[in-house]
Write a structure and sequence with these properties.
The complex is a heterodimer of chains A (378) and B (617).
Chain A: H1 2-19, H2 21-37, H3 41-56, H4 63-84, E1 88-92, H5 96-108, E2 112-116, H6 123-126, H7 134-137, H8 144-155, E3 160-163, H9 173-176, E4 181-185, H10 189-201, E5 207-214, E6 217-223, E7 226-233, E8 236-243, H11 247-252, H12 264-278, H13 291-305, H14 314-322, H15 328-347, E9 356-360, E10 365-369
Helix pairs in contact in A: 1-2, 5-8, 5-15, 12-13, 12-14
Chain B: H1 3-12, E1 14-18, H2 22-33, E2 38-42, H3 67-78, E3 83-87, H4 98-102, E4 106-109, H5 114-127, E5 131-137, E6 140-146, H6 167-172, H7 177-182, H8 196-204, H9 225-249, H10 284-305, H11 321-324, H12 349-353, H13 364-381, H14 396-412, H15 420-427, H16 435-453, E7 462-470, E8 473-478, E9 495-499, H17 506-515, E10 523-527, E11 530-534, H18 541-552, E12 567-572, E13 577-585, E14 598-601
Parallel strand pairs in B: 1-2, 1-4, 2-3, 4-5, 9-13
Antiparallel strand pairs in B: 5-6, 6-7, 7-8, 9-14, 10-11, 10-12, 12-13
Helix pairs in contact in B: 2-16, 8-9, 9-14, 10-13, 13-14, 14-15
Classes of the chains: A alpha/beta (378), B alpha/beta (617).
């Protein structure tokens, strides 16, 4: 008897492996439906009616999913949860903020998460990373992405987490088709532009985000291309359309065309970004010693853009240059906001931010800035 | 700020965290990553499946274990060389007294209820230790800093009293009126971006608090038609849960005015007091139908008899079980012996009726079936518990019964019906919670904590995490308020009480003022050096008898008489809170407006709302 049972289980496992999770679940549902239809009598008819009603609105969440996600389904609804569970997300660059973000979306129950970061573990990489137990892995031959992957899988067994090796900027456009969302962190200005363009060229929308934290400051950039969603106003729901510029288009918007009170952090980040590009530094490879050259660059940029230099205070630039270590509270905050935004974009629920977000622990403000061409909105 | 100096301050700090739930998990992780070395954490809860979607330190295999301990072990895996001490205990336990608090540099709170928050606030004040408070609901959250003498304490702003549903009106009719008029003091900073979920939280008693409450919007803004229906349904749930459910399955001796539905005594013998009593050998279905017809039929008829009440309202429709389900129909469905399991805790009326999806809205017929079936299952499978049951959101059968009863009542009153999933959320005061908000709030707590450790007083902020930007901000810092000079908790300003000292007893004073308003758990009342009353486990027998006798006496006839001009000292030794009350005799009180028969001044009345501040953990 036991042997029969274990054979049966083996068979199911085999079936599952062969069909893949999604297919297998469908097959299982179908099998159950056949079972239900075979029932007769009044009870059977009732049961059939119930089944058909259940299946009408598409894939149903499993009992397990409903129990696990109970509290958040109460926030964003079962439709949103269903869309989340079918979404595929790529994250490149596994520093503290990206790690926080990954935790958030894995807990939220996305379909799959692909990680990219071939760097080996260093003490610095560990400082804001709670996914990697330090000692046992210090000398292992595995990359950051691989080590993070192990822990993330444990967070939520219903999410498929995997690793992709290589340099993202060299990948073909086809590669991006597999994803609904691409998040890049700690990469150069050039790479950001390049990957953003690749995402934009796909036939379906691949939402693109960049995220960076320096010292106690953080920045998020969002490109949802053309995004339509229903906005809830008290009782009515209205259709909203947003046009996003690409990263390249956004940073090309003349500074004098921007509203008067744009966050200082926006300008400061652009100066540092430009500095790293001209000096061919890796992102974040700066120190206070660079301040004189950066101040010189600020002067040049401000002159060309006719912006008063006081919009980019020395103190702020100094902090951004010096803060090599990640500041974990800021990683948590920026990773949290980014998680929320990605969940909004996938589920189509809630107003997404357009198109930059800044946080500075110094003044505690978390600000949204729309950096787009004032004429076209994008 | 100097990075080196900051790191030094962090490394030397000893931190107390209360709450290891949603905010707690995130907070412990962020503290550890930020190089904090010595952290104590208190939480009495154990892990549940519905925690796992956001309390990321916990796994399926930890369900049932102590949150504090599992959280500690999980964080030590990635930060092995720091000290984390876990206390699996109630924060209100006497071991966590002022001396315990005094060993810390700062207290960080991620609690889920008002009562514990007040307690921690009072102890922090007594120990003079700064407190960082926090809370989240869905996408909303806030962080506040409380430092004695510098910023307001957690109780400087009046806190809404928990769960004060106006049951009297719920007994008779669900009505919007009390919501439209009553909430003058309740308002939201999110006025223009006000959302329905927020309103739901507000109304189901899950929203906070001091911080979401700001004097800029009146409550009437909230009463949109959609919301109106929702509010009315909340009434139906309260009726089903607090009145019907507890009448049938709870403590029989409890006061319960379910029977008193009309002022006139038209009750025939059939509808006398014992209508809810199960007669020996009575068929359970028969019994169920009798209850059904009484509460959904007869009671409504009685209410309708009062023509005056229905002038400007829709008249409800009495519902009788035989109209919905002709006799015998349910016999063939609910077969008790057919249960797949003998475990009484897993019986389900949905299960035996074959209803599967908790998000389906049942029609009146299905609700009626569930009502009768659930009742039957309670009497058939869980008879031993009857008489001692209290509603529990994790008790499937209880939720089914309450959902069905609320829906049948809603149908009578023409209020839209709701699914079990929604009803469960309302009945169980379930807090909406997502991981991201907790992560953000935890980050903000640590930022404030570091400022406190560096004594950077001028840069303390209270921060709101908003769902919709306000002046471009999603995270909005605000300068903290000064302490409220007349706060009875953090200032020494005496309170004053108008009371009829010849009529009110010491018991009235203890229940209505000391417990009801000052929220003391273990009060001690003194008149000069004479002890009038105290609560404690270690009282001498004769003292206890003495106090018991005092409770029955009116104030002016106490051994040490309390009259106009007397100053009473009221203390709670566990909360380390003490305040003086000036007594002033007053002869008459207005029964309607001053139902307590006494009036306390210097204490701010909380908004008359049914909010209970229970933010998620």
């Amino acid at each position: 008897m036991n042997r029969m049972k274990s054979l049966h289980q083996e068979g199911r496992k085999e079936q599952k492996r062969y069909l893949g999770d999604d297919q297998w679940r469908k097959a299982r549902n179908l099998r159950a439906l056949l079972g239900v239809l075979a029932q007769t009598g009044r009870e059977g008819v009732l049961e059939q009616r119930r089944w058909l009603r259940l299946r009408m609105d598409g894939e149903e969440l499993t009992e397990q999913e409903t129990a696990l996600y109970d509290r958040q389904i109460r926030v964003w609804g079962v439709d949103a949860q269903r869309r989340l569970s079918k979404s595929h997300i790529l994250v490149s660059g596994m520093k503290g903020t990206a790690v926080e973000f990954c935790k958030n979306i894995v807990l939220a129950g996305i379909g799959s998460l692909t990680l990219m970061d071939d760097r080996m573990v260093t003490e610095e990489a560990l400082s804001a990373n709670f996914l990697i137990p330090p000692d046992e892995n210090m000398f292992s031959e595995r990359s950051l992405a691989e080590l993070c992957c192990d822990s993330l899988r444990e967070f939520n067994p219903m999410v498929r987490v995997s690793v992709e090796k290589g340099d993202l900027s060299t990948f073909d456009g086809d590669f991006y088709d597999k994803f609904d969302v691409v998040v890049v962190s700690c990469c150069s200005l050039r790479t950001k532009k390049l990957i953003n363009e690749k995402c934009r060229k796909r036939s379906k929308r691949v939402a693109f985000y960049t995220v960076d934290c320096r010292d106690s400051c953080g920045e998020i950039f969002v490109d949802l291309q053309n995004y339509t969603y229903s906005q809830k106003k008290l009782v009515d729901t209205i259709e909203q359309q947003l046009q996003y510029p690409s990263f390249e288009e956004a940073v090309a918007v003349p500074w004098r065309a921007l509203p008067r009170k744009v966050a200082k952090l926006y300008f400061a980040m652009r100066v540092i970004e430009r500095f790293e590009q001209t000096e061919e530094r890796n992102p974040g490879e700066t120190s206070v010693a660079d301040l004189p050259s950066v101040l010189k660059l600020r002067k040049e940029l401000c002159e060309t853009q006719s912006l008063n230099e006081s919009h980019i205070p020395d103190g702020l630039l100094e902090r951004l240059l010096a803060g090599r270590r990640e500041f974990p509270p800021v990683c948590a905050i920026i990773g949290g906001i980014l998680g929320q935004e990605v969940i909004k974009a996938i589920s189509g629920k809630g107003d997404p931010l357009k198109n930059f977000f800044f946080f500075d622990a110094f003044d505690g403000k978390g600000i949204i800035e729309d950096i787009s061409n004032p004429d076209t909105g994008s | 700020m100097d990075a080196e100096q900051q790191l030094q301050a962090i490394k030397q700090a000893k931190v107390l965290m209360v709450g290891a739930g949603g905010i707690g998990c995130e907070l412990l992780k962020t503290l550890a990553l930020s190089s904090f070395q010595d952290i104590h954490i208190i939480d009495m809860d154990t892990i549940e499946v519905s925690n796992l979607n956001r309390q990321f330190l916990f796994r399926q295999s930890h369900v049932g274990q102590s949150k504090a301990k599992v959280a500690r072990d999980a964080v030590l895996r990635f930060k092995p060389h720091i000290n984390i001490t876990a206390h699996h205990a109630n924060v209100k336990d006497p071991e966590f007294n002022v001396d315990f608090y005094k060993q810390f540099n700062i207290v960080l709170s991620g609690l889920d209820n008002l009562d514990a928050r007040r307690h921690v606030n009072r102890l922090c004040l007594a120990a003079d230790i700064p407190l960082v408070e926090s809370g989240t609901t869905g996408f909303l959250g806030q962080v506040t800093v409380h430092m004695k003498g510098k910023t307001e304490c957690y109780e400087c702003q009046p806190k809404p009293t928990p769960k004060t549903y106006p049951v009297c009106t719920i007994t008779s009719t669900p009505s919007k009126d009390q919501f439209e008029g009553g909430g003058g003091g309740v308002s939201l900073p999110l006025a223009r971006n006000f959302s329905l979920p927020l309103a739901r939280n507000l109304l189901t008693g899950t929203i906070s608090l001091s911080c979401l409450v700001h004097p800029c919007l009146s409550f009437s803004h909230l009463c949109t038609p959609v919301l109106g229906c929702f509010i009315l349904f909340v009434h139906c749930i309260v009726w089903a849960k607090d009145l019907l459910f507890s009448k049938l399955f709870g403590d029989k001796d409890q006061e319960n005015d379910l029977n008193v539905c009309s002022n006139n005594a038209t009750s025939s013998s059939e509808h006398a007091e014992d209508v809810f009593k199960h007669i020996l050998d009575e068929d359970i279905e028969q019994y169920g139908r009798r209850i059904y017809d009484h509460v959904f039929g007869y009671n409504i008829e009685v209410a309708l008899a009062n023509e005056e009440a229905w002038k400007n309202r829709n008249r409800p429709k009495p519902t009788y079980s035989s109209d919905i389900l002709p006799d015998k129909l349910i016999q063939q469905i609910g077969n008790l012996d057919n249960g797949a399991t003998d475990d009484p805790s897993s019986v389900s009326a949905m299960g035996s009726l074959g209803l599967k999806n908790p998000r389906d809205i049942w029609n009146l017929e299905e609700n009626t079936r569930i009502f009768l079936e659930a009742l039957k299952l309670f009497f058939g499978k869980r008879e031993k518990e009857i008489g001692n049951l209290t509603f529990d959101k994790d008790d499937q059968l209880a939720v089914e019964f309450v959902t069905a009863a609320a829906n049948i009542r809603a149908a009578s009153f023409g209020i839209p019906l709701h699914s079990l999933f929604e009803a469960k959320g309302i009945a169980g005061n379930i807090v909406h919670a997502v991981a991201t908000t907790n992560a953000i709030i935890a980050g903000l707590i640590v930022i404030e904590a570091i400022k406190v450790l560096l004594c950077d007083t001028n840069s303390y902020r209270m921060t709101y995490c908003l769902q919709h930007p306000s002046r471009k901000m999603l995270l909005m810092p605000v300068e903290p308020f000064e302490p409220n000079k007349s706060c009875y908790v953090c200032s020494e300003t005496p309170l004053s009480l108008q009371v009829n000292t010849h009529r009110s007893t010491l018991r009235d004073f203890v229940e209505k003022i000391v417990k009801g308003k000052l929220r003391m758990d273990f009060p001690l009342i003194m008149h000069g050096s004479a002890l009038l009353y105290e609560v404690g486990d270690d009282l001498e027998e004769d003292m206890a008898a003495n106090y018991a006798a005092n409770l029955h006496k009116v104030l002016s006839e106490l051994p040490s008489p309390v009259t106009s001009g007397t100053v009473l000292t009221v203390e709670d030794l566990q909360q380390e809170l003490s305040c003086n009350i000036n007594i002033k005799h007053r002869e008459e009180f207005d029964e309607e407006n001053e139902p307590d028969g006494m009036l306390l001044f210097g204490w701010t009345q909380a908004p008359p709302m049914n909010m209970d501040n229970s933010l998620p953990v």
